[in-house]
Request: fold
Amino acid sequence: MRSLVYCLALVLVVAPVVSAEKMAVDIKSADGVMLKGSYYDAGQPGPAMLLVHQCNMDRTSWESLASSLSGAGIHVLTFDLRGFGETPGEGLISPESFPRLMKQSPPDVDAAYEYLLKQDGVDRSRVAVGGASCGVALTSDLTTRNPEIKAFMALSGFPSDAAKAHIAKTPGLAVFGAAADADDLTPGVHEVIKASVGGSKNPKSMVKIYGGTEHGLPMFGKNPDLEPAILSWLKTQLLN
Reply:
């Protein structure tokens, strides 16, 4: 009996520990453009999240949050919009570039979302999406096209009118919003964030408005409680 107990204990000690893994991926959009992405495999079956960067950054801006989420058991996909990071394209080289970017990006966001759902171990019934700045508009519209999405995160960005209506009529969609009250890139965005979250009928929706001029992810450095709050909120929505 003592030998049996010893063997069982040895098995427990040497058993492999499941861990998260980050890998570079290629995502083919509808018109054949290869979007460069990073997939954070949680190492076990579980929920998932798509993150879309703001339009003065690229997918690497999500490294800290994405790593924390995957370490908690949530699969994460980030990718570079066209002309950002490693994805080819125009990016923002002129005032006319932004409308073109926002018009051509929805199919790319759809492609990334479908790529995420097809990954091994992803529970398609527990998926969140979110973005910062221009990424908010893109992911908010994604929720209207995919009503199965359970949670939506908006940092310093404007959800579309269609998305705000969807939030108001979809109590199953939890919303987290954050912005700075003196955002120097998008004045008044904090009021839009408050109104969008306030329109949610989901009791777990949450809004955090900070003092300052930071726009999007720079809020993390100024407000060290924000990233942990987002992580805790997403774990509550997706893991419980």
Q: What stands out?
A: The radius of gyration is 19 Å.
